[in-house]
Amino acid sequence: MRLSALKSVGNLEIIQDGDFRALGLISQKKPDMLTFLDNTENPGDITIPKNLSGLITRRDLFPALPDKNRIALAFSNDPRESFFTIHNFLVQSSDFYGESFPTKIGKNTIIHPTAFITDSRVKIGDNCKIGPNVAIMEGTVIENNVIIRACTTIGSESNAFRPGLDGVTSIYSSGGVLIHNNVEIHSNCCISRAVLGGYTEIGESTKIDNLVHIGSGALIGKRCMIVALAVVGKESEIGNDVWIGPGSVVTDNTIIGDGAYVTLGSVVTEDVPPNQRVTGNFAINHEKFLNFLKKIR
Hints:
Elements: E1 13-16, E2 22-23, E3 33-37, E4 52-57, E5 72-75, H1 79-93, E6 104-105, E7 110-111, E8 116-117, E9 122-124, E10 129-130, E11 135-136, E12 140-142, E13 147-148, E14 153-156, E15 161-164, E16 167-170, E17 176-179, E18 184-185, E19 190-192, E20 199-202, E21 207-208, E22 213-214, E23 219-220, E24 225-226, E25 231-232, E26 237-238, E27 243-244, E28 249-250, E29 255-256, E30 261-262, E31 267-268, E32 277-279, E33 284-285, H2 286-296
Parallel strand pairs: 2-3, 3-4, 4-5, 6-9, 7-10, 8-11, 9-12, 10-13, 11-14, 12-17, 13-18, 14-19, 17-20, 18-21, 19-22, 20-23, 21-24, 22-25, 23-26, 24-27, 25-28, 26-29, 27-30, 28-31, 30-32
Antiparallel strand pairs: 1-5, 15-16, 32-33
């Protein structure tokens, strides 16, 4: 899409026109992506990632932009507001994020009569089991041999909002949920769909216990165990063979390495290296946590 086509939608001043194929935050790695830059503590540290093809920013940040001649560029008094206004417009008024198609259900899949599945933009593979009162919303792709138990919602709208002068406005979800082969999701779980295209993803053979929430854009690896009442924040990345204990919270944009173990009730606010066991609020290395308890008792 041409940036200039959205000039009036985002109230933009086009400085250099060009095409883009995706929208995303500056930290994301989507190819040919349009993003925004509205604040920086040190303008000298600004970089333009190679995957960017367009940027909405403030006029006063322009002199600090490196390598700016290779991307489409627009000024806005409020780049964040312009960016999400454009996003919402594209969700509602275009097929930029993908064309609609009739829902498709594979062979030998059993769907309880009380389950709700939208009639468009859903794909369900073979040999799946969809339980009572399950809701499967637009943008969901479920592969083969997946079990979803009672009252779980797949593909709910993300809890993404934008404060402004006229109050708080919802940021519409344009992505979906991708559930790989042999996943089992128990009752009363909620998996939010990705906001800026792409998927919230659950890896092959992962098992999710009751009352778990998975935030938008989270990537869960293979063979993970996510136990009851756990919360995984949006855009987090969980590696393969990870254990997330009951009542644990993984905050947004956190990376947990392969084989890590998050003990019950932990609050994870920093990245966790592979194979590390973490404990506490805020979570630290498990052995350090135990040594600390010994000192204060």
